[in-house]
Amino acid sequence: MSRISTSISLPRLAAVATASAFRRSAVSLVVSSSLCSKRRKIFAMAAVEATGSMTSADSLVVKLPSHPTYDLKAVVALALAEDAGDRGDVTSLAILPSEIEVEAHFIAKEDGVIAGIALAEMIFDQVDPSLKVEWSVRDGNYITKGMQFGKVCGCAHNIVVAERVVLNFMQRMSGIATFTKVMADAAYPACILETRKTAPGLRLVDKWAVLIGGGKNHRMGLFDMVMIKDNHVSIAGGVANALKSVDSFLEKKNLKIPVEVETRTMEEVKEVLNYANQTRCSLTRIMLDNMVIPLPNGDVDVTMLKEAVEMIDGRFETEASGNVSLETVKKIGETGVTYISSGALTHSVKALDISLKIDTDLALHVARRTNRA
Fold this sequence. Notes:
Strand content: 15-25%
Pathway: Cofactor biosynthesis; NAD(+) biosynthesis; nicotinate D-ribonucleotide from quinolinate: step 1/1
Oligomer: single chain
Order of helices and strands: HEHHEEHEEEHEHEHHEHEEEHEHEHEH
Number of strands: 15
Largest sheet: 6 strands, parallel
Distance between the termini: 58 Å
Low-confidence stretches: 1-35, 37-53
Helix content: 40-55%
GO molecular function: nicotinate-nucleotide diphosphorylase (carboxylating) activity
Structural class: alpha/beta
EC number: 2.4.2.19
Pfam families: QRPTase_C (PF01729), QRPTase_N (PF02749)
Number of helices: 13
Strand order of the largest sheet: 7-14-13-10-9-8
InterPro entries: Aldolase_TIM, NadC, NadC/ModD, Nicotinate_pribotase-like_C, Quinolinate_PRibosylTase_N_sf, Quinolinate_PRibosylTrfase_C, Quinolinate_PRibosylTrfase_N
């Protein structure tokens, strides 16, 4: 098989696989929804209301980042199909009478920034459009341990089917948003960015969580920004040669997209600036990579980074990358860089502990016993 035919067939295979999983999930959801077509009993076992009034909020406070090919509904369908397999929820099918309706409450077991509310609504709707979801918070709000911040009412079977998928997304997104918020506050006046170091298949979800946490998005993928990295520079024979090739390509294709170049030394910064002085170039941002130097005492030396920022003198956006942590980000932000990028926002996320419980009294009792409420 030739390279050309391979590059064409792989997307087709991916599309077929996604469509197949979506159809399987859709069949599973239709079957599970039909279990609750005749409802007679109401089991409202959650007696304690959440702080604040429960209203059907406009949960889409922060818009999902745009992407030309990403299908979030298909991602949700794959997650549901992963859980349902070819039999559906056999435990619920065995135990839960089809007519039972319940009310289940979301409970925070840690303090943090909540994220994923809008996505949770999408998942519940995809499982069963008749489920009623209400919240006392919105994406980006701060929740505290023990707080009941939302509820879902309707068919017990379908709530249980959706539960783990909803929580998996919300816990990951909330963990990212919580860490992003802390980093963004410490980085100010610089803006904190994530990278492409995201969970495969969940890039938009991860980057959405960063926005909810108060960060900004770096490039979405390989298509929306020219990013001249070290390997490109090495192959091109220097940053000036790489920039020249990019300028020629963009002009030929009549493309206007952001252009960033990675620099690793002061000599490379000077080379970029010299090139920009001599020609009209498309460059918009200079990455200053690993110019934050770790010290034996755990501190960092930002002298090189600050010198590079001063040399660029606002002619281009600047981005600090490398050795970025909660301990170092404040000092980096004080150098005058425009952006600070950190892969840790998404590749080392600690999920925020959240649960969805029907018997909230017992759930809170147990949570207090383990210091999670």
